[in-house]
Write a structure and sequence with these properties.
binds ligand 26Q; alpha/beta; 21 strands; six-stranded parallel beta sheet; ten-stranded mixed beta sheet; about 50% helix; 32 helices
C-alpha cells in the first residue's frame, strides 16, 4: 500500500523515462495496472490454484468484464491513493476512461460471469474463471444515416497490463485437422478489501510451430501463413450473436478449445497434489457450465480420464457427473444448442466416441424407467443427425439451474419437463444478481455517499442492509436530497450524450431508458410504437398535462439479424421526426446512443427515472439490467417476466408499473389462435403507428426492412406466426402504464419515494447472494 504511488512513478521512469505529468494515457494505464498487480502479491494464479478447499471453475465462452482499473483500485482500497497521485501531477483522474473496456462478451450471460467473479472473490470463495482471450471483442457500433455499422473492437490496442501470460502453463489442444496451443493469460480477480485473489484465465490459440521455415523456404509462403492463421483464428473473434445458432465449425472449435484447455489445466494441477488417485477429483473441483457453450468439457473430461489415466467409463462418468453443474439461460427452443453430427465428427472425432458412450449410458438408464407410454427417444443426446448439448449437460451433471424463479418454473414444467420428470432432484433455481461494487459504489458515487451517510457503508458487502433506507422514504428532506442526486446524474449523462452523440437532452425531462441487446423478444419495437402514439397524441391534443419525456435506447444488433437492424433504423427515424418537430420540442426527445457497452451502461443506469423491461412474458430468462436500474433508483415499467417478477415482489407493485399479458395469458392467446390483424383493424391508434412502417412516413433507405417488419407483425413468416411476440396484444396496457408513470412523476416527492423504495428493496439482487446460494446448494 505504501508503495503504490512510488511504484507507478518508478514504472514510468524505468520503462519510458517519464513522470506522471508527462506519460501518455496508455503508459499511465500500464503503470497503474502494474503497480496494482504488485499490491496483489506475486504468483496469484499459482496461489489460487493451491488454495485450501474446493475450487470452482466457472467455464464461460464470455466474460464481459468492462474496464478493470477503477474496479481493481476500488477493491484494493487504492482509489484514494490513485486520486492523490493524479492530483499531485495535475492530471485528470478520469483519464483512464479513454481506455476501451474489454467487450469480450455479448450481453447478460457474459456480464453475469463477470459479476460472479467479483462476488466470488469478495466472499472468500475459490471461484476462478476460464474462457477465451478473443483478439477482437464485440464490434464497435456507430450509426450512418440511422443504420448500424460495425467495426472491429481491438480491445488490447493500449496493451493489456492487467493480464499476465503464462507460457509455462500452455496446453496442447487436439483437432482432427491440426493441433494448437492454448496459452493462458491470467487476470487477478480482486475481492473487495483485497484479501482474496482469484484468477480469470483466458486462453489464446497459437500455432504449435512458431514459424515453418521449411515450408517457407520451399516457396510455400501462402500455405505457411494459412497454417499459422488457422490456429490464431480460433480465438480471433467473439461471435456477435447472443441467441441464434451459428452452426459454424469455428464456433465449435472455440468451444472445444477452451473447454479442453481448462479441463487439462485442472487435471494437471490435480495430479500434482494427488498423483494418479482420481477419487478426490469431485471434492477438489466443481465445474460450472455457463450455458451449454462449454458442455463438450463433459465428454472431454471422461476422455482424458479413460485414455490418459486408464479409468473405466463408469468411474469416469461418475466423476464427471459429480463435478459438473449446468446453468440454463434460455427457454426458447430455437436457442438451445445443437451440433450437426457430421460437423462434430469433422472437428473432434476423438471426442465423438465419448458422446456415443454417454448416449449409450443414457439409454441404459432410461430402460429402468421403461413403462407404458414412456418415450425414451425424446431424451436422445444424439438425435438423428444432431447432438443436443442441453440434454448432454443435464444428463452429464448433477445440477441444472434456471436464472430466475419464473424461468426455473418454465424449465421444469415446460421447456425441459421430461427431464424434470426423471431427475427432479437435479433442478434448482438461482436467481441472478449483480455486483453492487461496480453497479453502485463505482458508477454512482453520489448515491453511494448518500446511502453511506444514512445507513453506513456495510451495504458494499451486504446489500440487504439497503432495507434500512425504507423508513427514510417518509422523510421529505431525504427524498429531496435523493431526487437531487438523480438530477445530478441526469446532468452528467446529458453532458456525456452531448459529447458523444452530438445531441442535447434536457435533465428536467423524465429519462425513460431501455438498454439491452436488440432482440424481437425484448420488444424495442413496442417501445418505439408507444413513443409514436404519444407523439401523435400530443400533436392531436389527445394527451394533455404531459410531463416532458426523453426516451433513451442503447442496443447492439447481431450483424446478421436483419430485423433487429431494421428496428434500430426505425427508432432512429422516429428520433429524427420527433426531435425536429417544433410542436413537441418541449415535450419529447428520442435518443439512440451508439456503441452501448459496459462503460456506457455505468452512466445510463444511474440517470434513469424509468427502467424499460418489456419482454413478452415467458421469454426473458431473468434480465440483469433490470436490477442495475432498480439499484440506482429507477422504477420498473415492465411485464411479469424473468426477474421482474421478483423485483416487484421485493419492491411492491405500487412502486412499479407492471402491465400486459402474463405467461398464462400468452399461453391462452396462443391456444385460442392469436389474431394480430384483428387487434390492428380494431385499434385505430395502434393501426396508425404500425402503418408508419409502410405509408411513407419513414424511409428505410430502400432496404425493404420496414415492410418486412410490418409483414412479420401481420402475416408472419415461414418460421413464425404473425406478431410472434404479442406486441399488439400488450400495446394498450403498455401505453396506459407509461402514461400513468408520466402522470405520477408530477408529484416529484411521491415519485422519488417510489424510487427510493426500489433502492431499499434491491438487496436480494446482489450477486453476493447468488454466489452464496451456488456455493451452498450446488458446489457444496
Ligand atoms: C450460441 C451459439 C453460437 C453462437 C453464439 C451463441 C450464444 C452466445 C451468447 C448464445 C447465447 C448467448 C448469450 C445469451 C444471454 O446473454 N442470455 C441472457 O443471460 C442472462 C444471464 O442469465 C439473462 O439475464 C438473460 O435473460 C438472458 O437472455
Amino acid at each position: 500500500m505504501k508503495n503504490f504511488k512510488a511504484n507507478v512513478c518508478d514504472y514510468l521512469k524505468l520503462n519510458y523515462d517519464k513522470t506522471v505529468a508527462t506519460a501518455t494515457t496508455s503508459e499511465l494505464y500500464s503503470a497503474v495496472a502494474c503497480a496494482g498487480i504488485a499490491e496483489v502479491g506475486h504468483d496469484f494464479t499459482e496461489k489460487a490454484k493451491n488454495a485450501d478447499g474446493k475450487k470452482v471453475a466457472y467455464l464461460s465462452a464470455e466474460f464481459l468484464i468492462g474496464r478493470m482499473t477503477y474496479n481493481n483500485l476500488l477493491n484494493l482500497g487504492l482509489l484514494e491513493k490513485y486520486t492523490e497521485l493524479m492530483d499531485e501531477y495535475k492530471r485528470n483522474t478520469r483519464e483512464l476512461e479513454d481506455i476501451d473496456d474489454p467487450a469480450t462478451g455479448n450481453g447478460g450471460l457474459g456480464r453475469l460471469a463477470a459479476c460472479f467473479l467479483d462476488s466470488g472473490a469478495t466472499n472468500g470463495i475459490n471461484l476462478n474463471g476460464y474462457g477465451i482471450r478473443y483478439r477482437y471483442g464485440l464490434f464497435k457500433q456507430s450509426f450512418k444515416n440511422g443504420f448500424q455499422t460495425e467495426e472491429p473492437d481491438d480491445w488490447t490496442k493500449f496493451g493489456d497490463p492487467w493480464s499476465i501470460r503464462h507460457d509455462e502453463d500452455k496446453v496442447l489442444v487436439h483437432f482432427k485437422d491440426d493441433d494448437v496451443y492454448a496459452v493462458p493469460y491470467d487476470m487477478p480477480v480482486i475481492g473487495y478489501g483485497g484479501k482474496k485473489i482469484n484468477f480469470l484465465r483466458l486462453w489464446q490459440a497459437e500455432p504449435v510451430q512458431e514459424f515453418d521455415f521449411d515450408m517457407f523456404n520451399n516457396q510455400n509462403y501462402a500455405k505457411e501463413a494459412t497454417k499459422r492463421n488457422n490456429a490464431f483464428a480460433i480465438s480471433a473473434v467473439l461471435y456477435a450473436n447472443d441467441s441464434m445458432k451459428a452452426g459454424k465449425q469455428l464456433r465449435l472449435k472455440q468451444q472445444y478449445f477452451f473447454s479442453s484447455a481448462s479441463v487439462q489445466d485442472m487435471v494437471r494441477t490435480y495430479k500434482k497434489k494427488y498423483g494418479d488417485d482420481f477419487r478426490h477429483f469431485a471434492d477438489e473441483y466443481a465445474i460450472q457450465l455457463n450455458d451449454t457453450h462449454p458442455t463438450v468439457a463433459i465428454p472431454e473430461l471422461i476422455r482424458i480420464l479413460m485414455e490418459e489415466e486408464g479409468l473405466s467409463f463408469a468411474k469416469s462418468f461418475k466423476i464427471a457427473r459429480e463435478t459438473f453443474a449446468y446453468t440454463n439461460h434460455t427457454i426458447m427452443a430455437e436457442a438451445l444448442e445443437k451440433w450437426d453430427v457430421a460437423l462434430f465428427k469433422s472437428v473432434i472425432p476423438h471426442v465423438y466416441k465419448y458422446v456415443q458412450m454417454i448416449q449409450k449410458a443414457l439409454r441404459k438408464d432410461l430402460e429402468k424407467l421403461n413403462h407404458e407410454g414412456f418415450d425414451a427417444d425424446q431424451y436422445n443426446i444424439i438425435d438423428g443427425n444432431l447432438i443436443h448439448m442441453a440434454r448432454m449437460a443435464i444428463y452429464g451433471s448433477h445440477s441444472t439451474n434456471g436464472v430466475a424463479a419464473l424461468h426455473t418454473e418454465i424449465l421444469k414444467n415446460d421447456a425441459l419437463k421430461e427431464w424434470y420428470k426423471i431427475y427432479p432432484e437435479r433442478f434448482n433455481n438461482k436467481t441472478n444478481g449483480i455486483t453492487q461494487r461496480r453497479w453502485l459504489a463505482l458508477c454512482n458515487m453520489e448515491l453511494s455517499g448518500f446511502i453511506t451517510e444514512n445507513i453506513g457503508q456495510g451495504w458494499i458487502t451486504d446489500l440487504d442492509r439497503l432495507k434500512k433506507l425504507a423508513p427514510l422514504a417518509d422523510n421529505k428532506k431525504t427524498i429531496k436530497q435523493f431526487n437531487e442526486i438523480k438530477r445530478i446524474k441526469k446532468v452528467q449523462l446529458a453532458e456525456y450524450i452531448r459529447e458523444n452523440e452530438g445531441i442535447t437532452i434536457d435533465p428536467s425531462f423524465i429519462y425513460d431508458i431501455q438498454i439491452k441487446r436488440l432482440h424481437e423478444y425484448k420488444r424495442q419495437l413496442l417501445n418505439a410504437f408507444s413513443i409514436l402514439d404519444i407523439y401523435y397524441g400530443l400533436k392531436e391534443g389527445r394527451i394533455k398535462d404531459f410531463m416532458p419525456m426523453c426516451f433513451i435506447f442503447g442496443a447492439k444488433a447481431a450483424p446478421g439479424y436483419f430485423r433487429a437492424k431494421s428496428i434500430i433504423k426505425f427508432i432512429n427515424e422516429i428520433a429524427n421526426l420527433v426531435n425536429n418537430d417544433p410542436d413537441v420540442k418541449d415535450k419529447l426527445k428520442v435518443v439512440f446512443v451508439q456503441n452501448y457497452n459496459v462503460s456506457y451502461a455505468e452512466k445510463l443506469v444511474t440517470a434513469a427515472d424509468i427502467s424499460e423491461q418489456i419482454s413478452t412474458a415467458g421469454t426473458e430468462a431473468s434480465g440483469t439490467g433490470n436490477m442495475k436500474l432498480m439499484l440506482n433508483g429507477a422504477v420498473t415499467l415492465g411485464t411479469y417476466d424473468g426477474a421482474n417478477v421478483e423485483i416487484v415482489q421485493e419492491a411492491g407493485e405500487e412502486n412499479n408499473y407492471i402491465f400486459g399479458n402474463r405467461v398464462e395469458d400468452i399461453e391462452k392467446l396462443k391456444a385460442d389462435g392469436y389474431n394480430s390483424r384483428k387487434i390492428y383493424e380494431k385499434n385505430k391508434r395502434l393501426k396508425k403507428v404500425v402503418d408508419t412502417l409502410v405509408d411513407g412516413t419513414f424511409d428505410d433507405g430502400g432496404t425493404g426492412g420496414f415492410k418486412e417488419l410490418y409483414t412479420s407483425l401481420l402475416e408472419g413468416a415461414s418460421w413464425h406466426k404473425p406478431d410472434h411476440y404479442f406486441i399488439f396484444a400488450d400495446f394498450d396496457s403498455y401505453v396506459e402504464a407509461k402514461l400513468r408513470a408520466n402522470k405520477d412523476y408530477k408529484d416529484r416527492e411521491a415519485f422519488g419515494k417510489k424510487c427510493l423504495l426500489n433502492v431499499a428493496a434491491a438487496g436480494k439482487f446482489s450477486s453476493d447472494r447468488t454466489i452464496r446460494q451456488y456455493t451452498e446448494e450446488v458446489w457444496s
